Amino acid sequence: MNIATARMTARRTTFGTTPAGTQASLFELEEPGVLKARITDYGGAIVGLETPDREGRLADVVQGFDSLDGYLDPENPYMGAIVGRFANRIAGGRFRLGSREVELATNNGPNSLHGGERGFSHTVWRSEIVETDDSVGVVLRHRSEDGDEGYPGALDCTVSYQLRAGGGLLIESEATCDATTVVNLTFHAYFNLEGHAAGSVLDHRLRICAERFTPLDETQIPMGSLIAVAETPFDFRRSKRLGRDIDADDEQIQRGSGFDHNWVVDGWNVGESVLRQAARLEAPESGRVLELSTTEPGLQVYTANFLDGTLRGKGGQSYARRSSVCLEPQHFPDSPNQPQFPPTVLEPGDVYRQRTLYRFSVAP
Ligand code: GLA
Q: Which of 53, 178, 201, 311 is the most buried (most CB within 10 A)?
């Protein structure tokens, strides 16, 4: 173990019991004064992330709940969770896979959203603490059976959260299947870098390393094209206040009720597994910075447009509309119906892999 990791710790406590009688755990991964992550094996949700501001004052920068009950609530909007088997929307809950017509439950208007009624965010994963020479972490495993939520083939998933010295949280995912299927995992943390209870996120500055995005139809399904962000509200190539164009008079903004779109990460190539910088989020008051790098071709940016203050989060805090922002690395929504998008089909014998790194620091 090197000097930095020698100070890092990992421990498990109990988090509660599901109605089915399964025990859920809470893991605390810590590099003192730099980053403390709290993660539950229920949906693999990131429950808390404490990082220092310019003055060294720690704050918890993700929204969530104090107890398992909040995560079990059917109104829980995927707070901090792993999303799967397929992130975001699949049009009409249907797609063709070879000669087969796959039919999923629809749980978002006419569409299937985030894996269906009981996706990967709504189950207890098997879990163990793993410490290596340069990280402490928790490894989560979940088997989704053949036919789960309508998806063909059993899928075995492993997601590991690792604390890296100096403020990094690395998430590595793998999946294998026993019959042809589709897979698209993402992570649904709601960030407010001023603190989870700080209110509006609209003064945060965001940069997205993307020249194009995938415009939506009226039901929030990609129309199929990739459109240049230049001269649109979606241009975040240079750091911009999140609130600047969020209510612009623009059809795409209206369809997302703000930002709720997939950006096309610059430089991505099929078959490569390079960590590319996709986004940089900065909070002006505290100076906290989050840099996101990923192997994924897409980044969904969702400005919590559907939160409405009714949800009681940590410390009884009510989470208002646009009080946080999700940065969700992913393949493009509805890819199974859009052959021109990077493929999401997984064949037996192949391995799905994703790596995503969240790195926290402070701006000078
Ligand atoms: C994603 C979607 C949003 C919304 C949230 C969860 O980010 O794109 O439209 O469904 O998840 O509430």
A: 201
Instruction: Assign 72 to helix, strand or coil.
Output: helix
Residue 4 has a pLDDT of: 66
Q: Is the CB of 113 under 6 A from ligand 1?
A: yes
Q: What is the pLDDT of residues 311-340, one digit of tens each?
A: 899 999 999 999 999 999 999 999 999 999
Does residue 1 have a pLDDT over 80?
Answer: no
What phi and psi values does residue 337 have, to the nearest 5 degrees? -105, 5
Sign, CA dihedral 184-78-188-208, equals: positive
- DSSP class of 124: B
Atom index in ligand 1 nearest the CA of residue 114 equals 11
Instruction: Tell me the HSE value of 48 on the side-chain side, using a 13 A CA sphere.
Output: 20
Catalytic residue annotation? 188, 328
pLDDT tens-digit readout, 67-108: 999 999 989 999 999 999 999 999 999 999 999 999 998 999
How far apart CA 84 and CA 131 sit, in angstroms, is 26
pLDDT tens for each residue of 24-65: 999 999 999 999 999 999 999 999 999 999 999 999 999 999
70 CB less than 6 Å from ligand 1? no
Tell me the Ramachandran region of residue 323: left when phi exceeds 0, alpha when psi lies from -120 to 50, beta otherwise.
alpha
Residue minimizing CA distance to atom 2 of ligand 1: 88
- Residue 86 near ligand 1, beta carbon < 6 Å: no
Q: Is the CB of 121 under 6 A from ligand 1?
A: no
**Atom 5, ligand 1: which residue's CA is nearest?**
77
Q: Diameter of the chain by CA atoms?
A: 60
